[in-house]
């Protein structure tokens, strides 16, 4: 891999309750970035980050593992950490070296104690965090329920940056809240096409946009002063809310 200057390196930890999909998320990131040709399976013991014999025999992560890929000229170092409590020492070690963390939550089981603990450990270590709501392909996935659980627990510091679009119980695309744009998946590799935001979720998007602005603004005084100017101008939210996320170490967003 080539050399990168510090500003083009990110160290990101994957944390959360056991079995929510951290290792498979790491695998999907590596695949999407072109770092691996095919995605492995935890059950087959052939993923990049679950490789030692205990992990492959038990089907769970036992120790933290590092993987790296390039995305938009930035080197992303991913540290996949175990979710089961017996291995919590690995999480403490991992959080010492990351700048930010993704707390992975299943859209079927919702907010579990392991995710709550991960949030607390990130707070204790001053690590910026975002939630990734995973397993959205499952029939009983319930994004809104998980979002409600998170806002109830963590207030307006949590705001969605992507919303799922489902049709007939299947995930068919998403709304990028920062770009104010909807996408539908298509058959090409990683393929997606731009679509209009569906009518049934349009009011929801407007409502959540305001929460997103408030959340970003609360992480930065400068943004707080400008919030009223930006709410009516969604395209500008992107740079401003990312700025708020990076400035506010406790800022958090929902990715999917
Ligand atoms: N359908 C579906 N299954 C998933 C998804 N993500 C993970 N899984 C499955 O869930 C199981 C657990 O996934 P892992 O990636 O090992 O979960 P983990 O969070 O890394 O688990 P620990 O490291 O042991 O805490 C595996 O059988 C995965 O194939 C998903 O998005 N959809
Ligand atoms: Mg794992």
How would you sum up this structure, described in words?
There is one protein chain. The protein is of the alpha/beta class and about 260 residues long. The strands form 3 sheets. A 5-stranded mixed sheet has the order 2-3-1-4-5, sandwiched between helices. The longest helix has 17 residues. The two termini are about 30 Å apart. The site of guanosine-5'-triphosphate has 19 residues, from α1.
Task: Provide the fold topology.
Layout: E1 9-16, H1 22-32, H2 53-58, E2 65-71, E3 74-80, H3 88-95, E4 100-106, H4 113-125, E5 128-134, H5 143-154, E6 158-160, E7 162-167, E8 170-176, E9 181-185, E10 192-195, H6 202-218, H7 221-230, H8 237-247, E11 252-254
Parallel strand pairs: 1-3, 1-4, 4-5, 6-11
Antiparallel strand pairs: 2-3, 7-8, 8-9, 9-10
Helix pairs in contact: 6-7, 6-8
The site of guanosine-5'-triphosphate has 19 residues, from α1.
Number of strands: 11
Bound molecules: guanosine-5'-triphosphate, magnesium ion
CATH superfamily of the domain at 1-135: P-loop containing nucleotide triphosphate hydrolases
Biggest sheet strand order reads 2-3-1-4-5
Please give a handful of descriptors for the protein shown.
256 residues; alpha/beta; Rossmann fold; five-stranded mixed sheet; four-stranded antiparallel sheet; 8 helices; disordered C terminus
């Amino acid at each position: 891999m080539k050399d990168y200057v510090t500003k083009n390196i990110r160290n990101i930890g994957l944390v959360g309750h056991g079995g929510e999909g951290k290792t498979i998320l790491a695998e999907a990131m590596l695949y999407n970035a072109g770092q691996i040709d095919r995605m492995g399976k935890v059950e087959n013991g052939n993923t990049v980050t679950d490789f030692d014999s205990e992990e492959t025999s038990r089907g769970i992560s036992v120790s933290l593992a590092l993987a790296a890929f390039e995305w938009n000229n930035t080197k992303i170092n991913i540290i996949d950490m175990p979710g089961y409590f017996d291995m919590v020492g690995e999480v403490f070690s991992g959080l010492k070296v990351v700048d930010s963390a993704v707390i992975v939550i299943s859209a079927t089981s919702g907010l579990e104690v392991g995710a709550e603990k991960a949030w607390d450990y990130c707070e204790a270590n001053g690590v910026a965090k975002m939630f990734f709501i995973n397993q959205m392909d499952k029939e009983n996935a319930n994004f809104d329920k998980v979002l409600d659980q998170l806002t109830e627990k963590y207030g307006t510091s949590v705001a969605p940056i992507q919303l799922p679009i489902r049709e007939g119980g299947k995930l068919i695309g998403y709304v990028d809240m920062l770009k104010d744009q909807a996408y539908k998946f298509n058959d090409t590799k990683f393929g997606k096409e731009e679509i209009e935001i569906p009518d049934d979720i349009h009011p929801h998007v407007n409502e959540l946009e305001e929460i997103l602005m408030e959340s970003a603004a609360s992480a930065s005084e400068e943004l707080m002063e400008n919030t009223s100017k930006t709410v009516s101008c969604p395209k500008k939210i992107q740079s401003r809310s990312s700025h708020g996320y990076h400035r506010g170490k406790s800022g958090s967003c929902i990715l999917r």
